[in-house]
User: Which sequence fits this backbone?
């Protein structure tokens, strides 16, 4: 039996190293049907697929040519899935192996940004052949004699740039695309660093030299939500992850998320998730 203070470990794919690419059809594991997470970045390109892909407890109906970008720690699972395509996994250390590369290479981290909400990228018929060629080149280089890390990295870089272009194309086709605002991006970053300990809008407004009212006006205009709503969304997501992937008690989780009163945390979670924390955990482990 696992100790209650030890987190369930991240699921490791049966491939090692800082970079891997493999066909989705070659990976058939019942573990994929269960909620799980990885400690690296993942690009999952479903060239042909049906079924459901659940990411951070939100279900997406799979279609052909859907690309999912997953950050380390994001929760996902596949249900009733028929799939063809490719999975590319890599670490930040693989991509940025030194400070010079961090300063000169394309910074892929903003590609994974969810400031305007998470969702898959729909790959156009025009872009698909280029992405397919790049995956074939990555396979060839990785599996060939004398595999060269720099060559793989350049192919990966090109794949990411194509993905970014398709993401922008998707946004342009949206019915009512949200106008960008760097302050919202920075707010998301600030929330990510501080949501466990800073639950007051005043803290975040001060960082922008704005009043709480003005910051709320900006975030509501750009995201449809107030700062408090964004903060609560992040707290609930983290609570769901901890309830699903650790044996820590609800009381321990509440303290880790900055709630001094576990009973208040339970009410907070039920109000936002529609289910009590322990009931959510029980459902996840059925």
Assistant:
């Amino acid at each position: 039996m696992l100790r209650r203070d030890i987190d369930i470990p991240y699921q490791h794919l049966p491939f090692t190293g800082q970079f891997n690419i493999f066909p989705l059809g070659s990976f058939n594991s019942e573990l994929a049907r269960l909620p799980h997470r990885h400690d690296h970045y993942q690009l999952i390109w479903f060239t042909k697929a049906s079924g459901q892909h659940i990411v951070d407890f939100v279900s997406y109906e799979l279609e052909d040519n859907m690309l999912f970008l997953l950050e380390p720690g994001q929760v996902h699972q596949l249900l009733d899935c028929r799939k063809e395509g490719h999975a590319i996994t890599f670490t930040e250390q693989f991509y940025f192996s030194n400070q010079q590369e961090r300063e000169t290479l394309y910074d892929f981290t903003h590609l994974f940004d969810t400031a305007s909400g998470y969702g898959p990228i729909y790959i156009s018929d025009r872009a698909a052949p280029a992405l397919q060629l790049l995956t074939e080149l990555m396979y060839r280089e990785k599996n060939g004699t004398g595999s060269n890390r720099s060559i793989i990295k350049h192919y990966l870089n090109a794949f990411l740039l194509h993905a970014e272009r398709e993401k922008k194309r998707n946004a342009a086709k949206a019915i009512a695309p949200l106008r960008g605002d760097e302050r919202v991006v920075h707010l998301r970053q600030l929330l990510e660093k501080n949501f466990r300990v800073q639950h007051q809008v005043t803290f975040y407004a001060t960082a922008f030299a704005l009043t709480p009212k003005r910051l709320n006006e900006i975030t509501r205009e750009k995201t449809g939500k107030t700062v408090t709503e964004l903060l609560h969304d992040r707290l609930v997501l983290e609570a769901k992850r901890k309830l699903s992937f650790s044996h820590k008690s609800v009381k321990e989780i509440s303290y880790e998320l900055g709630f001094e009163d576990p009973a208040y945390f339970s009410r907070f979670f039920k109000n936002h998730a529609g289910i009590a924390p322990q009931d959510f955990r029980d459902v996840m482990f059925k």
